[in-house]
Structure formats: C-alpha cells, structure tokens
Amino acid sequence: MPTGPNDAARALKYGAKGIGLCRTERMFNAVERLPVVIEMIVAEDQAQRQAALDKLLPMQRADFKGLFEVMSPLPVTIRLLDPPIHEFLPTERQLQSDLEQLSHLRRSVLGMEVLAGSMILLHDPSAAKSEADSMRHIVDLELVEQAIEKKTLMLEKGACAYRGEPDARPSWRTPWHHLS
C-alpha cells in the first residue's frame, strides 16, 4: 500500500502496475507532519483547527501531485476518508506514563530552581549568578508545563476517541474534502 511518491517509486521498481489503495492517513505519520495532525486533533476551536488544516493541505497536495507524476499513466486509487483520530495519538497507557515522567521532571526542575537560587549561599557570590543562570537554562519549567498541557489534552481527546464519544471527532473537514 504505497502512501506517497517515494513509496510509489519503490513499488514501481518492484514491478507495480498501479496503486490499488493509497491510505491517505498514512501520509501524515511522518515525523514532521504528525505534530501538525495532533495540533488539528487537539485544537480548542474551529480557528485553531483550520490553521492546522491550512498547514496540512499543501503537504497533501504535494503528495498527490508527486504520486500521480510517479505513477503516470498507471492507475492510482486514493481513499479519501477522515483519518481515525486514535491512530495519530499515543495510547492512553503511553500518555499516562509520559505525564507521570513529566510530573517527576517538573518536580526536579523546581528543585533545580531552588538549588540555583541557593548558589549564592554555596559559592563565591561573583560566580554564583552565572552558575545559577546556567542551571536554569538546562531545563525550562515553562517547556515542561507546555508538554504536560499538550499531553493532557491528547489524553482527554484520545480517551474520548477510544470510547467512541461523538465529541472526540470534532467537526472538521479533511484537507482533501474538496476532492470528494
């Protein structure tokens, strides 16, 4: 099942006579694309969701163009379905584990900030400030908090999707809605 131009070119090398099924959701699993898909899934409102879709549309257009160019004149079948949300999110167990680790990291970072603030008591005051500043740059508490917030949102959306709750599947149109 080729999912993009590179896979299609590889399939041709092995003698493919066309593509029987291109699953469009597989095109979004690439490392640089998955964060945008997750951004779309966890969007708080239609404007945020549309902003993510606006990033995804050119990616998919380029994929389709490349796919058709590589395979021309052979037949290509593309399935234009809404992707299942749960396929793009980590499992509930993985997210819970990540949140537990991030919670530990948050406590460690807070401890490092206390230590950084105590440097003046432990070292030469003239060197203490630069040592404290370098400690604070190791891990940014705000970054940890953002990661916790994002993972929590993913857990909430994913849990709804796994249970089949209607709110889990937001009313968004796929980047390829105009093709169907």
TrEMBL record:
TM ranges: none
Keyword check for Transferase: yes
Record's keyword terms, sorted: Kinase, Metal-binding, Pyruvate, Transferase
Residue intervals of the PEP-utilising enzyme C-terminal domain: 5-92
Annotated Pfam families: PEP-utilizers_C (PF02896)
InterPro entries recorded: PEP_util_C, Pyruvate_phosphate_dikinase, Pyrv/PenolPyrv_kinase-like_dom, Pyrv_kinase-like_dom_sf
Keyword Kinase: yes
Gene3D superfamilies given in the database record: Phosphoenolpyruvate-binding domains
GO MF annotations in UniProt: kinase activity; metal ion binding; pyruvate, phosphate dikinase activity
Role noted for this protein: Catalyzes the reversible phosphorylation of pyruvate and phosphate.
Protein name: Pyruvate, phosphate dikinase
Native source species: Candidatus Endoriftia persephone str. Hot96_1+Hot96_2
